[in-house]
Amino acid sequence: MEALLVAAIALAVGLAFGAYRQRRRLKSLETVIDDRDAAIGQLQSQLDEAQRENQQGEALSVNIADLSFDTVLILDEDLSIVMLNRRARRLFGEANPIGERLPDLVESAELLSLAQMALREDESLEEHFVIQGKNYRARTQVIMPIQSQRFIGIGMQDITELVSLNRARRDLVANISHELRTPITRIRLIIEGLFLEADKPKRKASIQSLKEIAMETDALLWLAQELLDLSMIESGEAILRLVKTPLKQLVDEAIGRLESQAAMRDLHIVSQAPQRYEVLCDADQLRRVLVNLLHNAVKWSPKGEAITITASEQADEITISIFDKGPGIPDELRSRVFERFYQADASRSGDEGTGLGLAICKHIIEAHGGRIWAEGNSQGKGGHFLFTVLKAEATFQDEAPIISSGDQSPVVAADAATALD
Protein backbone atom coordinates (compact mmCIF):
# COMPACT_ATOMS: atom_id res chain seq x y z
CA MET A 1 0.00 0.00 0.00
CA GLU A 2 2.77 2.38 0.87
CA ALA A 3 4.57 1.49 -2.34
CA LEU A 4 1.46 2.31 -4.35
CA LEU A 5 1.15 5.65 -2.54
CA VAL A 6 4.79 6.52 -3.24
CA ALA A 7 4.34 5.67 -6.92
CA ALA A 8 1.25 7.85 -7.13
CA ILE A 9 3.07 10.72 -5.47
CA ALA A 10 6.00 10.32 -7.84
CA LEU A 11 3.69 10.28 -10.83
CA ALA A 12 1.92 13.43 -9.60
CA VAL A 13 5.24 15.20 -9.05
CA GLY A 14 6.39 14.17 -12.54
CA LEU A 15 3.21 15.40 -14.10
CA ALA A 16 3.43 18.67 -12.20
CA PHE A 17 7.06 19.15 -13.23
CA GLY A 18 6.18 18.35 -16.82
CA ALA A 19 3.35 20.85 -16.74
CA TYR A 20 5.71 23.42 -15.28
CA ARG A 21 8.27 22.82 -18.02
CA GLN A 22 5.50 23.05 -20.63
CA ARG A 23 4.37 26.35 -19.20
CA ARG A 24 7.96 27.63 -19.26
CA ARG A 25 8.31 26.55 -22.87
CA LEU A 26 4.99 28.16 -23.80
CA LYS A 27 5.99 31.38 -22.06
CA SER A 28 9.27 31.42 -23.95
CA LEU A 29 7.40 30.86 -27.20
CA GLU A 30 5.01 33.67 -26.32
CA THR A 31 7.97 35.95 -25.66
CA VAL A 32 9.49 35.03 -29.00
CA ILE A 33 6.15 35.56 -30.73
CA ASP A 34 5.70 38.91 -29.00
CA ASP A 35 9.19 39.96 -30.07
CA ARG A 36 8.46 38.89 -33.62
CA ASP A 37 5.13 40.73 -33.58
CA ALA A 38 6.89 43.83 -32.30
CA ALA A 39 9.51 43.52 -35.01
CA ILE A 40 6.82 42.99 -37.66
CA GLY A 41 4.87 45.94 -36.29
CA GLN A 42 7.94 48.10 -36.35
CA LEU A 43 8.73 46.96 -39.89
CA GLN A 44 5.13 47.64 -40.95
CA SER A 45 5.34 51.08 -39.37
CA GLN A 46 8.53 51.77 -41.27
CA LEU A 47 6.91 50.56 -44.48
CA ASP A 48 3.87 52.74 -43.85
CA GLU A 49 6.10 55.72 -43.17
CA ALA A 50 8.09 55.06 -46.33
CA GLN A 51 4.85 54.74 -48.29
CA ARG A 52 3.57 58.02 -46.84
CA GLU A 53 6.86 59.73 -47.67
CA ASN A 54 6.70 58.29 -51.18
CA GLN A 55 3.11 59.50 -51.60
CA GLN A 56 4.08 62.90 -50.23
CA GLY A 57 7.04 63.00 -52.60
CA GLU A 58 4.84 62.09 -55.54
CA ALA A 59 2.23 64.66 -54.50
CA LEU A 60 4.96 67.28 -54.07
CA SER A 61 6.40 66.43 -57.50
CA VAL A 62 2.95 66.72 -59.10
CA ASN A 63 2.24 70.03 -57.34
CA ILE A 64 5.61 71.43 -58.36
CA ALA A 65 4.95 70.33 -61.94
CA ASP A 66 1.51 72.00 -61.78
CA LEU A 67 3.19 75.29 -60.87
CA SER A 68 5.07 75.25 -64.17
CA PHE A 69 3.81 77.33 -67.07
CA ASP A 70 5.08 74.59 -69.36
CA THR A 71 3.49 71.27 -70.31
CA VAL A 72 5.26 68.44 -68.44
CA LEU A 73 4.93 64.72 -69.31
CA ILE A 74 6.69 61.63 -67.91
CA LEU A 75 6.62 58.52 -70.14
CA ASP A 76 7.91 54.99 -69.61
CA GLU A 77 9.91 53.08 -72.21
CA ASP A 78 6.67 51.94 -73.88
CA LEU A 79 5.73 55.66 -74.31
CA SER A 80 2.86 55.26 -71.83
CA ILE A 81 2.05 58.30 -69.68
CA VAL A 82 3.19 57.85 -66.08
CA MET A 83 2.70 61.40 -64.81
CA LEU A 84 1.67 64.79 -66.19
CA ASN A 85 0.90 68.24 -64.81
CA ARG A 86 -2.34 70.21 -65.01
CA ARG A 87 -1.24 72.17 -68.07
CA ALA A 88 -0.48 68.94 -69.94
CA ARG A 89 -4.03 67.67 -69.30
CA ARG A 90 -5.34 70.41 -71.57
CA LEU A 91 -3.84 68.52 -74.49
CA PHE A 92 -6.13 65.58 -73.76
CA GLY A 93 -9.36 67.35 -72.82
CA GLU A 94 -11.37 65.78 -70.01
CA ALA A 95 -9.90 62.26 -70.45
CA ASN A 96 -7.50 60.80 -67.87
CA PRO A 97 -4.44 59.84 -69.91
CA ILE A 98 -2.46 58.07 -67.16
CA GLY A 99 -1.47 54.63 -68.44
CA GLU A 100 -2.37 55.45 -72.04
CA ARG A 101 0.25 55.41 -74.80
CA LEU A 102 1.19 58.81 -76.21
CA PRO A 103 0.90 57.68 -79.88
CA ASP A 104 -2.78 56.83 -79.20
CA LEU A 105 -3.51 60.28 -77.78
CA VAL A 106 -1.55 62.85 -79.79
CA GLU A 107 -1.30 63.04 -83.55
CA SER A 108 2.18 64.54 -83.78
CA ALA A 109 4.85 62.61 -85.62
CA GLU A 110 7.47 65.16 -84.51
CA LEU A 111 6.73 64.69 -80.78
CA LEU A 112 6.72 60.88 -81.04
CA SER A 113 9.93 60.91 -83.05
CA LEU A 114 11.54 63.18 -80.46
CA ALA A 115 10.60 60.82 -77.59
CA GLN A 116 11.84 57.72 -79.45
CA MET A 117 15.08 59.45 -80.41
CA ALA A 118 15.65 60.44 -76.77
CA LEU A 119 15.38 56.76 -75.76
CA ARG A 120 17.74 55.61 -78.50
CA GLU A 121 20.39 58.26 -78.00
CA ASP A 122 19.95 58.61 -74.22
CA GLU A 123 20.49 62.38 -74.25
CA SER A 124 18.62 65.66 -73.98
CA LEU A 125 17.03 66.84 -77.25
CA GLU A 126 15.11 69.95 -78.32
CA GLU A 127 12.68 70.50 -81.21
CA HIS A 128 9.95 72.87 -82.47
CA PHE A 129 6.64 71.59 -83.85
CA VAL A 130 2.90 72.28 -84.09
CA ILE A 131 0.15 70.45 -82.13
CA GLN A 132 -3.54 71.31 -82.47
CA GLY A 133 -2.68 74.53 -84.28
CA LYS A 134 -0.29 75.77 -81.57
CA ASN A 135 3.47 76.16 -81.79
CA TYR A 136 5.52 74.34 -79.14
CA ARG A 137 9.17 74.17 -78.20
CA ALA A 138 9.86 70.78 -76.59
CA ARG A 139 12.82 69.37 -74.67
CA THR A 140 13.31 65.74 -73.65
CA GLN A 141 15.43 64.19 -70.90
CA VAL A 142 15.96 60.50 -70.08
CA ILE A 143 15.39 59.83 -66.36
CA MET A 144 16.80 56.72 -64.59
CA PRO A 145 15.61 56.56 -60.93
CA ILE A 146 16.63 52.87 -60.86
CA GLN A 147 19.09 51.01 -63.07
CA SER A 148 16.57 48.57 -64.50
CA GLN A 149 14.08 51.11 -65.91
CA ARG A 150 14.22 54.38 -67.82
CA PHE A 151 11.65 57.15 -68.15
CA ILE A 152 11.36 60.05 -70.59
CA GLY A 153 10.67 63.55 -69.31
CA ILE A 154 9.14 65.96 -71.86
CA GLY A 155 8.79 69.69 -71.26
CA MET A 156 6.74 71.63 -73.84
CA GLN A 157 6.48 75.43 -73.96
CA ASP A 158 3.66 77.11 -75.90
CA ILE A 159 5.40 79.69 -78.11
CA THR A 160 2.44 80.49 -80.35
CA GLU A 161 2.26 84.11 -79.23
CA LEU A 162 6.03 84.48 -79.50
CA VAL A 163 5.96 83.15 -83.09
CA SER A 164 3.10 85.52 -83.91
CA LEU A 165 4.93 88.51 -82.41
CA ASN A 166 8.13 87.59 -84.24
CA ARG A 167 6.22 87.40 -87.51
CA ALA A 168 4.57 90.76 -86.75
CA ARG A 169 7.98 92.26 -86.02
CA ARG A 170 9.33 91.07 -89.37
CA ASP A 171 6.25 92.43 -91.13
CA LEU A 172 6.60 95.76 -89.33
CA VAL A 173 10.23 96.14 -90.36
CA ALA A 174 9.34 95.25 -93.97
CA ASN A 175 6.36 97.63 -94.00
CA ILE A 176 8.27 100.53 -92.47
CA SER A 177 11.15 100.00 -94.90
CA HIS A 178 8.68 100.08 -97.78
CA GLU A 179 6.84 103.12 -96.43
CA LEU A 180 10.07 105.05 -95.91
CA ARG A 181 11.64 104.09 -99.23
CA THR A 182 8.68 105.17 -101.37
CA PRO A 183 8.33 108.84 -100.27
CA ILE A 184 12.09 109.34 -99.89
CA THR A 185 12.66 108.05 -103.44
CA ARG A 186 9.93 110.28 -104.83
CA ILE A 187 11.27 113.36 -103.02
CA ARG A 188 14.75 112.62 -104.36
CA LEU A 189 13.48 112.26 -107.94
CA ILE A 190 11.44 115.48 -107.74
CA ILE A 191 14.41 117.47 -106.41
CA GLU A 192 16.72 115.99 -109.04
CA GLY A 193 14.19 116.93 -111.70
CA LEU A 194 14.20 120.54 -110.51
CA PHE A 195 18.01 120.79 -110.60
CA LEU A 196 18.45 119.03 -113.93
CA GLU A 197 16.10 121.30 -115.87
CA ALA A 198 18.03 122.74 -118.83
CA ASP A 199 16.12 125.96 -118.62
CA LYS A 200 15.04 127.84 -115.56
CA PRO A 201 12.13 125.90 -114.02
CA LYS A 202 8.76 127.42 -114.65
CA ARG A 203 6.91 128.73 -111.63
CA LYS A 204 3.89 126.48 -112.18
CA ALA A 205 6.03 123.34 -112.47
CA SER A 206 8.05 124.33 -109.41
CA ILE A 207 4.93 124.88 -107.32
CA GLN A 208 3.57 121.49 -108.35
CA SER A 209 6.88 119.85 -107.46
CA LEU A 210 6.89 121.54 -104.06
CA LYS A 211 3.30 120.32 -103.46
CA GLU A 212 4.38 116.78 -104.25
CA ILE A 213 7.36 117.09 -101.91
CA ALA A 214 5.02 118.39 -99.19
CA MET A 215 2.65 115.48 -99.73
CA GLU A 216 5.47 112.92 -99.43
CA THR A 217 6.81 114.73 -96.36
CA ASP A 218 3.35 114.47 -94.79
CA ALA A 219 3.46 110.71 -95.41
CA LEU A 220 6.78 110.49 -93.55
CA LEU A 221 5.44 112.58 -90.66
CA TRP A 222 2.34 110.39 -90.53
CA LEU A 223 4.46 107.25 -90.25
CA ALA A 224 6.57 108.79 -87.50
CA GLN A 225 3.44 109.83 -85.59
CA GLU A 226 1.93 106.33 -85.83
CA LEU A 227 5.12 104.77 -84.47
CA LEU A 228 5.21 107.32 -81.63
CA ASP A 229 1.55 106.72 -80.76
CA LEU A 230 2.02 102.96 -80.72
CA SER A 231 5.11 103.28 -78.54
CA MET A 232 3.23 105.42 -76.00
CA ILE A 233 0.26 103.03 -75.95
CA GLU A 234 2.51 99.99 -75.48
CA SER A 235 4.45 101.64 -72.65
CA GLY A 236 1.30 102.89 -70.88
CA GLU A 237 2.45 106.51 -71.09
CA ALA A 238 -0.57 107.76 -73.01
CA ILE A 239 -2.92 109.48 -70.57
CA LEU A 240 -6.59 110.23 -71.30
CA ARG A 241 -8.13 113.38 -69.89
CA LEU A 242 -11.87 113.05 -70.34
CA VAL A 243 -13.73 116.36 -70.57
CA LYS A 244 -16.96 117.65 -72.10
CA THR A 245 -16.24 118.49 -75.76
CA PRO A 246 -18.45 119.54 -78.72
CA LEU A 247 -18.32 116.73 -81.29
CA LYS A 248 -18.70 119.02 -84.32
CA GLN A 249 -15.65 120.98 -83.23
CA LEU A 250 -13.53 117.80 -83.25
CA VAL A 251 -14.90 116.72 -86.63
CA ASP A 252 -14.23 120.13 -88.20
CA GLU A 253 -10.68 120.19 -86.83
CA ALA A 254 -10.01 116.68 -88.19
CA ILE A 255 -11.39 117.67 -91.60
CA GLY A 256 -9.17 120.76 -91.58
CA ARG A 257 -6.08 118.62 -91.14
CA LEU A 258 -6.98 116.50 -94.18
CA GLU A 259 -8.21 119.31 -96.45
CA SER A 260 -4.99 119.67 -98.43
CA GLN A 261 -4.64 115.93 -99.01
CA ALA A 262 -8.30 115.66 -100.00
CA ALA A 263 -7.94 118.60 -102.39
CA MET A 264 -5.00 116.95 -104.15
CA ARG A 265 -7.24 113.97 -104.92
CA ASP A 266 -10.27 116.14 -105.74
CA LEU A 267 -12.18 114.68 -102.78
CA HIS A 268 -14.90 116.34 -100.70
CA ILE A 269 -15.30 115.63 -96.98
CA VAL A 270 -18.87 116.25 -95.87
CA SER A 271 -19.76 116.57 -92.18
CA GLN A 272 -23.31 115.83 -91.05
CA ALA A 273 -22.52 115.81 -87.31
CA PRO A 274 -25.22 117.80 -85.43
CA GLN A 275 -24.10 120.91 -83.60
CA ARG A 276 -25.83 119.89 -80.36
CA TYR A 277 -23.83 116.71 -79.67
CA GLU A 278 -21.29 116.88 -76.85
CA VAL A 279 -19.10 113.94 -75.88
CA LEU A 280 -16.98 112.90 -72.90
CA CYS A 281 -13.52 112.44 -74.35
CA ASP A 282 -9.87 113.36 -74.54
CA ALA A 283 -10.08 115.87 -77.39
CA ASP A 284 -6.56 115.23 -78.72
CA GLN A 285 -6.97 111.44 -78.75
CA LEU A 286 -10.48 111.41 -80.24
CA ARG A 287 -9.34 113.88 -82.89
CA ARG A 288 -6.52 111.43 -83.62
CA VAL A 289 -9.10 108.68 -84.25
CA LEU A 290 -11.09 110.91 -86.60
CA VAL A 291 -7.96 111.97 -88.48
CA ASN A 292 -6.79 108.34 -88.79
CA LEU A 293 -10.12 107.16 -90.18
CA LEU A 294 -10.42 110.15 -92.52
CA HIS A 295 -6.84 109.64 -93.70
CA ASN A 296 -7.72 106.03 -94.43
CA ALA A 297 -10.77 107.15 -96.41
CA VAL A 298 -8.84 109.82 -98.35
CA LYS A 299 -6.11 107.34 -99.20
CA TRP A 300 -8.42 104.80 -100.84
CA SER A 301 -11.32 106.89 -102.17
CA PRO A 302 -11.60 107.26 -105.96
CA LYS A 303 -10.84 110.78 -107.21
CA GLY A 304 -13.75 113.16 -107.34
CA GLU A 305 -15.85 111.27 -104.75
CA ALA A 306 -17.16 112.38 -101.34
CA ILE A 307 -16.36 111.16 -97.82
CA THR A 308 -19.25 111.47 -95.39
CA ILE A 309 -19.19 111.79 -91.58
CA THR A 310 -22.46 111.26 -89.70
CA ALA A 311 -23.40 110.95 -86.02
CA SER A 312 -26.43 109.57 -84.17
CA GLU A 313 -27.33 109.07 -80.52
CA GLN A 314 -28.52 105.96 -78.64
CA ALA A 315 -29.05 105.95 -74.85
CA ASP A 316 -25.85 107.38 -73.34
CA GLU A 317 -23.71 106.91 -76.46
CA ILE A 318 -23.09 108.72 -79.72
CA THR A 319 -22.16 106.69 -82.80
CA ILE A 320 -19.89 108.33 -85.37
CA SER A 321 -19.77 106.90 -88.89
CA ILE A 322 -17.22 107.56 -91.66
CA PHE A 323 -18.15 106.34 -95.12
CA ASP A 324 -16.08 106.41 -98.32
CA LYS A 325 -16.62 104.96 -101.81
CA GLY A 326 -13.40 103.00 -101.97
CA PRO A 327 -13.05 99.20 -102.32
CA GLY A 328 -14.18 98.60 -98.72
CA ILE A 329 -13.35 95.76 -96.31
CA PRO A 330 -14.21 92.13 -97.18
CA ASP A 331 -16.64 90.63 -94.65
CA GLU A 332 -14.17 88.00 -93.46
CA LEU A 333 -11.54 90.64 -92.63
CA ARG A 334 -13.74 93.05 -90.65
CA SER A 335 -12.38 92.03 -87.24
CA ARG A 336 -8.79 91.46 -88.33
CA VAL A 337 -8.18 94.94 -89.74
CA PHE A 338 -7.92 96.27 -86.16
CA GLU A 339 -5.11 93.87 -85.26
CA ARG A 340 -1.72 95.44 -84.69
CA PHE A 341 0.44 95.34 -87.87
CA TYR A 342 -2.30 93.58 -89.84
CA GLN A 343 -3.02 94.73 -93.38
CA ALA A 344 -6.06 93.82 -95.42
CA ASP A 345 -5.74 92.26 -98.85
CA ALA A 346 -4.37 94.13 -101.83
CA SER A 347 -7.85 95.20 -102.97
CA ARG A 348 -8.00 97.46 -99.91
CA SER A 349 -4.42 98.24 -98.93
CA GLY A 350 -2.57 98.07 -102.23
CA ASP A 351 0.20 96.46 -100.14
CA GLU A 352 0.86 99.83 -98.50
CA GLY A 353 0.68 101.15 -94.95
CA THR A 354 2.12 99.92 -91.68
CA GLY A 355 -1.06 98.40 -90.28
CA LEU A 356 -0.86 100.59 -87.18
CA GLY A 357 -3.55 103.23 -87.72
CA LEU A 358 -6.66 101.14 -87.07
CA ALA A 359 -4.99 99.34 -84.15
CA ILE A 360 -4.27 102.72 -82.56
CA CYS A 361 -7.89 103.78 -83.13
CA LYS A 362 -9.11 100.61 -81.40
CA HIS A 363 -6.89 101.25 -78.36
CA ILE A 364 -8.09 104.84 -78.03
CA ILE A 365 -11.81 104.11 -78.46
CA GLU A 366 -11.78 101.17 -76.03
CA ALA A 367 -9.93 103.33 -73.49
CA HIS A 368 -12.83 105.79 -73.82
CA GLY A 369 -15.26 102.98 -72.98
CA GLY A 370 -16.54 102.75 -76.55
CA ARG A 371 -16.53 100.29 -79.45
CA ILE A 372 -15.15 100.47 -82.98
CA TRP A 373 -15.97 98.25 -85.94
CA ALA A 374 -16.09 98.07 -89.73
CA GLU A 375 -18.93 97.01 -91.98
CA GLY A 376 -18.07 94.60 -94.76
CA ASN A 377 -18.38 95.61 -98.38
CA SER A 378 -21.21 93.12 -98.81
CA GLN A 379 -23.33 95.80 -97.10
CA GLY A 380 -22.67 98.05 -100.05
CA LYS A 381 -19.65 99.25 -101.98
CA GLY A 382 -17.30 101.43 -99.99
CA GLY A 383 -15.42 101.59 -96.72
CA HIS A 384 -17.59 102.10 -93.64
CA PHE A 385 -16.10 102.51 -90.14
CA LEU A 386 -18.12 103.26 -87.01
CA PHE A 387 -17.27 103.92 -83.38
CA THR A 388 -19.08 104.97 -80.22
CA VAL A 389 -18.20 107.48 -77.55
CA LEU A 390 -20.02 108.47 -74.35
CA LYS A 391 -22.24 111.52 -74.20
CA ALA A 392 -20.95 114.38 -72.10
CA GLU A 393 -23.52 113.74 -69.33
CA ALA A 394 -22.73 110.00 -69.13
CA THR A 395 -20.70 108.51 -66.29
CA PHE A 396 -17.38 106.97 -67.31
CA GLN A 397 -16.89 103.61 -65.60
CA ASP A 398 -13.23 103.22 -64.73
CA GLU A 399 -11.64 101.36 -61.80
CA ALA A 400 -8.51 103.52 -61.70
CA PRO A 401 -9.35 107.22 -62.17
CA ILE A 402 -5.87 108.33 -61.08
CA ILE A 403 -3.02 107.17 -63.30
CA SER A 404 0.69 107.66 -62.78
CA SER A 405 2.91 107.94 -65.85
CA GLY A 406 6.48 106.77 -65.35
CA ASP A 407 8.22 108.56 -62.49
CA GLN A 408 5.91 111.56 -62.66
CA SER A 409 3.29 112.34 -60.07
CA PRO A 410 -0.25 111.04 -60.67
CA VAL A 411 -2.22 112.92 -63.34
CA VAL A 412 -5.85 113.75 -62.61
CA ALA A 413 -8.07 115.15 -65.36
CA ALA A 414 -10.80 117.72 -64.89
CA ASP A 415 -13.53 115.07 -65.09
CA ALA A 416 -11.76 111.73 -65.32
CA ALA A 417 -8.47 110.17 -66.36
CA THR A 418 -7.42 106.78 -67.57
CA ALA A 419 -4.50 105.21 -69.41
CA LEU A 420 -4.26 103.54 -72.80
CA ASP A 421 -3.00 99.98 -72.62
Present the secondary structure layout:
Layout: H1 2-67, E1 71-75, E2 81-84, H2 86-89, H3 102-105, H4 109-121, E3 125-131, E4 134-146, E5 149-158, H5 160-195, H6 203-235, E6 239-246, H7 247-264, E7 268-272, E8 278-281, H8 283-300, E9 306-314, E10 317-323, H9 346-349, H10 357-367, E11 372-375, E12 384-390, E13 416-419
Parallel strand pairs: 7-9
Antiparallel strand pairs: 1-2, 1-5, 3-4, 4-5, 6-8, 6-13, 9-10, 10-12, 11-12
Helix pairs in contact: 5-6, 7-8, 8-10
Task: List unreliable stretches of 5+ residues.
Answer: 345-351, 399-419
H/E series: HEEHHHEEEHHEHEEHEEHHEEE
Distance between the termini: 124 Å
Look up the CATH topology of the domain at 235-419: Heat Shock Protein 90
How many helices? Answer: 10
The mean pLDDT is 75
Query: Major sheet: order of its strands?
Result: 2-1-5-4-3
The CATH class of the domain at 235-419, by name, is Alpha Beta
Number of strands: 13
As a percent range, the share of strand residues is 15-25%
Q: Decide which structural class fits the backbone.
A: alpha+beta
Task: Supply Rg.
Answer: 40 Å
The major pleated sheet works out as:
5 strands, antiparallel
CATH homologous superfamily (4th level) name of the domain at 235-419: Histidine kinase-like ATPase, C-terminal domain
Q: Can you give the helix content as a percent range?
A: 40-55%
**CATH structural architecture of the domain at 235-419:** 2-Layer Sandwich
Spatial shape: elongated
